[in-house]
Amino acid sequence: MIPKEWLSKIRQIELRTVRLVEDLMAGQYHSVFKGRGMDFDEVREYQPGDEVRRIDWNVTARTGIAHIKKYVEEREMTVMILVDASASSETGSVEQSKRELAAELVAVLAFSAISNNDKVGVLLFTDGSEKYIGPSKGRRHVLRLISEVLSYRPTRRGTNLTTALQHINRAHSRRAVIFVISDFMDDGFERALKVTSRKHDLIAVPVIDASELHLPDLGWMAFEDSETGEVLEVNTSDPFAQTAFAAVAKQRLERLRRLFRMSGLDSIEVQTDKPYLRALMQFFANRYRRLHP
């Protein structure tokens, strides 16, 4: 049952994202995510230009006429979306928090998946695996995923990407498409990222808030780390503090981008105070060019 206080928000997200999927995303999604392999479809007579290795020698011997095996793409895939529900996910701009942006991204990806007859599920994680919702199809299932991402109250505050990735590797032995929506404020997850990317089609979705890139000029302020509870007082009007803060934020972001490149991962970088459509379309365009040179 979807909590009443979230019904209006979920309905707004559904209306926006369904229209987006119908207008732009469904065809793009289909073109860049391949099925798990090829299924046998039928046997037909050999035609000039057909691959000799596809000849079905049993049928050919029985009929006296060369026949080949015809295959079709095994289209149905499993899509799993890992959503960071740690305390830092509540950070956000005036318009929306990281978690609210994550819910909208889940909606776009999930509606794209089911419109292509794929199954989709969600894992909400902190420094532990908080809630796993198995992959399924249908509008009601997608609405449940959106509701859980918006309204779930985690039992922990920290972030452990390694635990989340290991959980998904155990849960899915067959290759799946895995999106990780997180601010990636964690350490030591590089190996888990590489292991998962070898087993699955892994896409990183770093979510950034403007407050993490630049200090607001508001004088002396007390900042509390949402995950550790550590409190630090800073003079936000100090130009040196502003410059140092921005430099550290830039370095962290560059390290993250470099890690994704070195791990061979595609990424979709989004911000809470900016429309996400351009980032999504750029991701699909880049992947399409790589798959269809």
How would you portray this structure in words?
It is built from eight helices and eleven strands. The strands form three sheets. Strands 3, 4, 5, 6, 7, 10 and 11 form a seven-stranded mixed beta sheet that branches. The chain has a two-stranded antiparallel ribbon with strand order 1-2. It has helices at residues 4-32, 57-63, 98-115, 139-151, 161-171, 190-199, 239-262, 277-291; strands at residues 37-45, 67-74, 78-84, 119-125, 129-136, 177-182, 201-208, 220-224, 231-235, 266-267, 270-271. The chain has two domains: 4-33 and 76-291, von Willebrand factor, type A domain (Rossmann fold); 37-74, no CATH class. The mean pLDDT is 87. It starts with a helix and ends with a helix. The chain is an alpha/beta fold.
Can you give keywords for this protein?
alpha/beta, two-stranded antiparallel ribbon, 8 helices, 7-stranded mixed β-sheet, Rossmann fold, 293 residues, 11 strands
Short description:
The chain is α/β, with parallel strands linked by helices and 293 residues long. It contains eight helices and eleven strands. It has two domains: 4-33 and 76-291, Rossmann fold; 37-74, no CATH class.
Arithmetic mean of pLDDT: 87
For this structure, what is the CATH class of the largest domain?
Answer: Alpha Beta
Alpha carbon gap, first and last residue:
46 Å
Low-confidence stretches: none
Series of secondary-structure elements, N-terminal to C-terminal: HEHEEHEEHHEHEEEHEEH
Determine Rg (CA atoms, Å).
23 Å
Helix percentage range: 40-55%
Number of helices: 8
In the CATH hierarchy, the architecture of the largest domain is 3-Layer(aba) Sandwich
Q: Count of DSSP E strands? A: 11
Oligomer: single chain
The name of the CATH superfamily of the largest domain reads von Willebrand factor, type A domain
Which overall shape is indicated by the principal axes computed on the Cα atoms?
elongated
